[in-house]
Structure formats: C-alpha cells, structure tokens
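Quick one, tokens below. Sequence please?
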C-alpha cells in the first residue's frame, strides 16, 4: 500500500516572468521555449505534483519521474528557521533539542518521511482505532447489561440477552474493518495542496502526527531495543538497514547519538552504540567533503589519490605526532587540497557539517579529543577505534586499501601506496527480494523454527531454497539465509553433520557475496563453531569462533555485546575438553567485556565456579558462587528457583572446601609427623656414624675396667 491521498489541486499556471519572456520571444520572431498551454483549471492528482505522466499509444497512463510518494518531514522544517537564526547568531541550541534542529541548506534537498514509517504509522493508527472501538463497545455493552439486569424477567430475559450478545459479536466483526490511512504528499509546499481548506488542514495535521510518531515512539523504541539487547547492529551498514526498516531517516543519527550519550552518562546503555553512531556520522560527512574537493578542481579529480590520502591521514592520523607536512609541496598538489584537507581545517569542517546535518557535537572524535580528556570528562580517552573508522570510510568512499597493521600513532599512517583502488558506490532500485513468494516462505519457515515446529520449518525452508535457486541461482543472500536456517533446524533435530554442511554452505555464500568482513559472515563463523563443537570437533571449532570475535571487533570495536557472549562460548568449549586454565581466561574476558547484562554475568560466574571445582579449587568456586548468589538475589529475589539453586551450589562448594581443608590438615599433620620422625632418625644415624668413626676400643676398655674393679672386691 502506498497510502497516497487523492486531492484536487489548482495549478499555478505560468508566472508573469514566463509570460513576459514568451512575449519577448514572439516579438523577436522566435518560437517560445516553453510551448504548450499551462492551464489553471483544478485537477485531481494522486501523488506528488513533481511527478510527470504521459498517455501511451496504447491508451494507458504512465508515470515518469516519480521522485517521492511521502510528505515532507515536519520535524525537519518546523525548527529550521530558528536553527538557522541561532547558527547565524552563534547560539547553542538547548540540550533537549539535540538532533532535531538542522541548519543544512543544500540546494534541492527535501526531508521526506520514509515509506516504512508511513506503513508503521498506518498500522499504529489502525490499532489505535480498533482499541478505541473495542473500549467504546465495551462501555456500551456494560451500560446495556446494567439496564438489562434491571429489566430481565425469567428465561425470556436470558434468551434476549443471548441474542443481544450474538448481535454484538456480529457488529464487532463488522466494525473491525478500519479504512486505510491516506497522506497527502503535497503538504508543507509553497502552494495549496488542496482546494478544500478543511481537507488541507486535516492533511497537514496527519503529516505532522506521522512526524511526531517517529520522534515520540519509533526513535525511543529503537534506543530501548538496543539497550535491552533485542537488536544489535554490528556496523554502519547494518545500522543503516535497521534504521531504514524502522522508518528512521539517517539524518536522525545525531538524535540517536544524543539519547545514547545521555544514557551512557548514567551507565544505562552499551558504549558501542555511541562509538558506532559517531563513526557513521563522520564517514558520511567525509563523503561530502571529498566530493566538494573533487568537484572544485579538475586536476584533483583526474588524480585524486593524494587528496584521498590527505583526507584519511587528517581523520586517522595522530594530532600529537603531527608536524609540518610537506608532502603536498613535494607532490605538487594544488593549494586547495592543502588548505582544505589539513588536520585542523578538516576537523573544523567535520564539526561544522556534523552540526548542520545531524545537529550533534562530536564527543569522542576530533582534533586532540582522542588523546586528551577534552571538555567532557564523562567520555575518557581511548574510546576511538581507528581501524573501525578506516573500514567505514572505505565503504562510504569506495576505497580499497592494503591490508596491514597501520601505525595510527603517526601523523601520516596511510601513504599513497596503500590505496589500491577506488570503486563507485551506487544505489540501485532493485527489489530486496527477487521473489515475493520465496520471501514469504522464508519468513514462515523462520517463524516455525522460533516456535519449535521443526518439520514444518524444514519443509518451508526447503521450498524457499528451491524457488530461490530457480529464480536467481544459488549465489544469493536469501539463499545463504535459507542454508543458515536449515542448519539450525537440522542441529535441533539432532542431525549435526547435516547442520555443519548447511552452515558451511551459508558461510561460503556470505563470504563470496558480501566479503570476509561482513557481519553475517562473522555470525556464520560463530554458528559453525557451535555445530563443530557439538560434533566433538572442538579443535576445528575454536578457530572459527576466534575468527568471529576478530571480525566483530574489527567491524564495531571492542565494546560490542556479542563479543562477550562469544568469549563465554569459547570458554565453555575449552571447559568441555578439560582446558580449565584457558576456560577461566575466556570467562574473565567475557566478564570484562560484558557491561550491563546481570543474568549473563551470573551465568559466566557460575561456569567459572564449576570450572574451579573441576580443578579442585573449591575455595575459588565458593567465592564465584557467592557473587552469583548476590546478583541473582538482587535481580530476582529470595524465592526465585535460580537463587535457590545457587544456594545449593554454595552449600556444596562449602562442604567440599571444608572436606578439602580437613584433608589438608590431616595431610599437613602426617607430613609434620613424618618430618619429626625423619629428623629423629637423622639424629640417630648421625650418632651412629660418629661412633663408627671413633672406633670400638673405648667401649672395650670401659668393660675391662669394670671387670678389674670387680676382682678387687672379691
């Protein structure tokens, strides 16, 4: 559904300037350039007035130049004049308006509502209407029931009551049909969008309400979903897709960053969201800056390598190591490039463009902000990840660079030799899914998989895979998703070998279609590692899960929540094969990277306690289990089964620790007794050896003396 309203509009006709120009051309005997008539008669139109249409020779009507089908975004335009005025007066907007006051004045730019938002808004309005109708019917039913209770007499009254309830159910079924929402795409223009003034006012109210719906409901819900872990975009590309699917325009990156910044100040959201949002804003601004530089000079556009290197070094180079850079003069680069792409001027331009396009002031990135605390003490040094920035810049600018360890601590980490190619970044109008039927089967199969009905899920996914193979071949992203879903189905059904084969196929497709650093490629590595571990191939599983951790950290930095979960899974793999030391190291890394998930922290601590108990360290196990008990009790209360289970483990570890202590005391006592005995034996042996060294005559002489004395007594 397009949700486009049909309205009657009076055309403007030709302006006085056009008419005067035509008269001058006629006076000169030249045919007017704008031939034809421009009528001012009221016309009925369904769509934007900028669209063009022709009637073909077959009698059909064809639409041309359909540039938009949705109305303008009222949020963008309502504060624009005030924002431009405050920018001219160099005033800072209020904190509550962060991300909503734009000062960009690009020629030809029109801020529109996304079609996805119109779809969501229509569903929301329909649900509201149904809810209001149900509440009204419920109130009327209760009032009618109260009247009937007063007037009911015997069975006849009961029969009438049943009949009335049946009639109400029929009325409810009939009244559930809600008319579709229709928006006028021509509101907020310089001309009247409808000849009916009342209808025009209603259209403007509906368009304003749709814009307010995005700010009041959609954007806060998006941040809340990220906060609780329901969604976790792994990089700027995934973030763009997710925002567009929710109907959020990319100009509201600053709004999301402002909300994330406020939540992060109170430790309410993961650090990675703000880091990723700032990287995305800088990459988008850098694209426009480079475009301006290339369009400003033909010689630079003919050989853009030096300008690109200068741009990358200005963003990624270290300001503390910056010195007077004379590469431009040595390479003969134009003065325009030197003046506009040095680090100081570049970051000034980036800050200005970020404020104008996104209404946001960078907190993590900037000249000197990555190496000094700066103005905001809530965001310490070391939050920037320049590898992530380099990757996103290459994606947005269409660059290919050498894969090596770059020395970002220098002022010029990238040289001209590192740029291996420049490719165009294009947008297409191709549908996201080549076959609607295959898409529906895929969604239904995944839904059955989430519900646990494996047989139905397997049949639907197999049919979807077959259709995709017939329509677009095996090399398609939906085919990879089918293989990954089939692998999950087979894994839960017990066919681990089949799951491994399907997941390997999905991994190969993701790598071939999207590249080795695509976020779904990383997740495919992680799932394959789990399947291999379940098949007792842990030696093959660990490299895959390490690869997934590396790719995710390369895509979005070290604070991505999924990295903590992957470290925990790798620790469990090591623990299952008896590598307790490695398991504890992985669990500690998982705890270090996990920020706010108490249940996950408790689970990790419990596994660390079990690992210590397997190694005989019951004291350490008891210490970890006490932390688990504290977290569980604080989160769920004393009566929760998890708290009770933790109490049992504490008692068990305490008993084992006491037994171990008793055993150690007995062992210590036995060792002490053995030591005393050994010492006495040593002394006796020493005396015996001393006697042997002195010889036996003294003893014989003493004996003779006694016998001699005895002879005297007799």
């Amino acid at each position: 559904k397009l949700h486009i309203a049909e309205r009657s509009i009076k055309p403007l006709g030709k302006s006085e300037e056009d008419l005067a120009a035509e008269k001058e051309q006629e006076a000169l005997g030249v045919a007017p350039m704008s031939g034809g008539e421009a009528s001012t008669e009221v016309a009925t139109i369904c769509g934007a007035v900028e669209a063009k249409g022709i009637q073909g020779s077959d009698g059909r009507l064809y639409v041309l130049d359909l540039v938009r089908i949705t109305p303008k975004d009222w949020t963008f335009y309502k504060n624009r004049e005030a924002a431009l005025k405050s920018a001219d007066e160099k005033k800072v907007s209020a904190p509550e308006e962060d991300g909503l006051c734009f000062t960009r004045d690009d020629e030809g730019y029109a801020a529109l509502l996304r079609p996805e938002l119109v779809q969501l808004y229509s569903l929301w309005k329909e649900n509201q209407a149904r809810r209001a109708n149900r509440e009204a019917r419920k109130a009327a039913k209760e009032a009618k029931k109260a009247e009937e209770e007063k007037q009911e007499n015997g069975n006849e009254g009961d029969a009438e009551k049943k009949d009335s309830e049946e009639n109400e159910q029929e009325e409810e079924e009939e009244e559930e049909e809600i008319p579709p929402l229709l928006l006028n795409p021509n509101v907020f223009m310089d001309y009247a969008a409808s000849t009916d003034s009342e209808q025009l006012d209603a259209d403007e109210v509906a368009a304003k309400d749709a814009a307010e719906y995005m700010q009041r409901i959609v954007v806060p819900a998006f941040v809340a979903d990220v906060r609780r872990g329901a969604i976790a975009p792994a990089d700027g590309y995934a973030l763009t897709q997710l925002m567009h699917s929710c109907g959020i325009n990319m100009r509201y990156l600053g709004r999301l960053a402002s909300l994330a910044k406020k939540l992060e100040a109170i430790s309410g959201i993961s650090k990675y969201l703000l880091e990723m949002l700032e990287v995305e804003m800088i990459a988008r601004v850098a694209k426009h800056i480079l475009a301006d530089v290339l369009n400003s000079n033909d010689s630079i556009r003919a050989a853009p390598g030096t300008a690109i290197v200068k741009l990358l070094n200005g963003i990624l180079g270290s300001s503390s190591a910056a010195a007077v850079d004379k590469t431009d003069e040595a390479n003969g680069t134009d003065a325009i490039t030197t003046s506009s792409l040095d680090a100081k001027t570049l970051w000034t331009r980036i800050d200005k463009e970020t404020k104008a396009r996104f209404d946001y002031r960078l907190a993590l990135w900037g000249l000197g902000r990555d190496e000094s605390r700066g103005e905001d003490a809530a965001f310490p040094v070391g939050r920037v990840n320049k590898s992530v920035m380099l990757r996103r810049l290459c994606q947005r600018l269409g660059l290919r660079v050498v894969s090596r360890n770059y020395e970002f601590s220098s002022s010029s980490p990238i040289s001209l030799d590192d740029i291996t190619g420049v490719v165009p970044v294009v947008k297409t109008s191709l549908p996201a899914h080549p076959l609607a039927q295959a898409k529906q089967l895929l969604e239904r199969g995944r839904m059955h998989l989430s519900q646990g009905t494996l047989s139905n899920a397997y049949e639907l996914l197999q049919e979807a895979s077959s259709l995709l193979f017939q329509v677009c071949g095996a090399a398609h992203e939906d085919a990879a998703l089918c293989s990954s879903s089939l692998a999950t189905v087979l894994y839960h059904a017990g066919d681990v070998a089949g799951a491994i084969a399907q997941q390997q196929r999905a991994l190969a497709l993701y790598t071939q279609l999207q590249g080795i650093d695509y976020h779904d490629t990383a997740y495919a590595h992680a799932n394959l590692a789990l399947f291999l571990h379940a098949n007792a191939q842990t030696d093959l599983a660990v490299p895959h899960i390490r690869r997934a951790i590396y790719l995710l950290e390369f895509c979005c930095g070290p604070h991505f929540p999924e990295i903590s979960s992957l470290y925990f899974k790798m620790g469990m793999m090591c623990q299952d094969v008896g590598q307790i030391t490695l398991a504890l190291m992985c669990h500690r890394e998982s705890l270090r990277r996990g920020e706010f998930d108490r249940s996950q922290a408790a689970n990790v601590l419990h596994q660390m306690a079990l690992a210590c108990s397997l190694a005989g360290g019951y004291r350490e196990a008891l210490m970890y289990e006490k932390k688990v008990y504290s977290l569980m009790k604080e989160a769920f209360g004393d009566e929760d089964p998890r708290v009770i289970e933790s109490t049992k483990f504490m008692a068990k570890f305490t008993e084992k620790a006491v037994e171990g202590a008793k055993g150690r005391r007995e062992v210590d006592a036995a060792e002490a007794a053995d030591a005393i005995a050994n010492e006495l034996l040593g002394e006796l042996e020493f005396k015996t050896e001393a006697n042997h060294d002195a010889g036996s005559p003294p003893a014989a002489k003493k004996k003779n003396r006694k016998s001699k004395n005895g002879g005297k007594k007799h």
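The CA atoms of residues 144 and 643 lie 50 Å apart. The two ends are 142 Å apart (CA to CA).
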